[in-house]
Design brief:
Distance between the termini of chain A: 27 Å
Strand order of the largest sheet of chain A: 1-2
Shape of chain A: globular
Radius of gyration of chain A: 17 Å
Number of helices of chain A: 6
Structural class of chain A: mainly alpha
Largest sheet of chain A: 2 strands, antiparallel
Strand content of chain A: 5-15%
Oligomer: homodimer
Chain lengths: 149, 149
DNA sequence: CAGATTAGTCAAGCGACTTGACCATATAGT
DNA sequence: ACTATATGGTCAAGTCGCTTGACTAATCTG
């Protein structure tokens, strides 16, 4: 693959990814959840699968557990999540989405669906599926976290 | 497109994009440039096309011109760029890459090429080109900037 | 050539994150 | 069983990238 082709691929990939993150965020804000940031969405992804501990969240996001704890504090204060006693471990506390947290998660999914629908209108459903399949093959395993800056 | 397919597409796209950014950064660090961050790379992309003013850089990165000015200060201090008199505008100053800045840019290109080479080994050159073409069709125009957090 | 705009910097503050210290609980070693 | 170590979580303080606000110098507009 030529150098300029590689450059173009990178540019398109990064631009598309940034547009997705920014677009979902904009859609979530437009749906009335204007006090959260994209990073919170990455947390919601984990929390929507049955809750998580602060340490798990920290590992998921790639930050320290102190940072994750502060993030949870903030989301508790805004009513998106709440802390519960952990069933198996008295040290740990399970962080789960509240009703508002679920509403916000669904808003994010709807915003994301809108964006991807736009892609299917450009590429067609079949080719979008191919795109998804190819990306899945080159995507690394592991938690979904925002890129470093 | 089904909802779970859309979710998988998003996850793969974000993971691939993050892996690219993190991977380039790791490659640049491994090549000896350990005092810069991915954001600086986005700046280098613009500066490598004939230099730019602080205001242009600010617009490119999506930050205030004060932040861009500080970033330039930092890069000047580390020897990656230097400020020159602007040929046409006595108010403005042209920021250009130094020798070290060019070396670093080439290191980033090499690191990026390594990563994309890995993709072509998985997908094949032809299919990677299709991927690039499809992404180019859905990627928004505009400057290449890091996604919000 | 006066008024408004633009390029850039200085200064102060904010917010997300870090490191370091600490307590409570759980797990492992002998 | 009992100590030693590891793990989950929080508190406190500090760092760093970025912001808003105020300002100067130079350019454009009418």
């Amino acid at each position: 693959m030529r150098n300029d082709e590689a450059q173009a691929l990178m540019a398109s990939l990064l631009a598309t990814s940034a547009a997705l993150v920014d677009g979902i965020h904009a859609g979530v804000v437009a749906r009335g959840f204007d006090d959260i940031r994209p990073t919170h969405g990455f947390a919601f992804v984990l929390l929507s699968h049955g809750g998580a501990t602060v340490s798990e969240l920290a590992g998921h996001l790639g930050v320290t557990k102190q940072a994750a704890s502060q993030l949870v504090d903030e989301l508790v204060g805004k009513g998106y999540v709440q802390r519960q006693a952990h069933p198996d471990d008295a040290r740990a506390r399970l962080v789960v989405l509240t009703r508002k947290g679920w509403d916000c998660t669904r808003a994010a999914e709807a915003a994301a669906a809108d964006i991807i629908h736009g892609w299917t209108k450009i590429l067609g459903a079949q080719r979008t599926r191919v795109l998804a399949a190819d990306l899945a093959r080159i995507a690394p395993a592991g938690p979904l976290r925002p890129a470093a800056r």
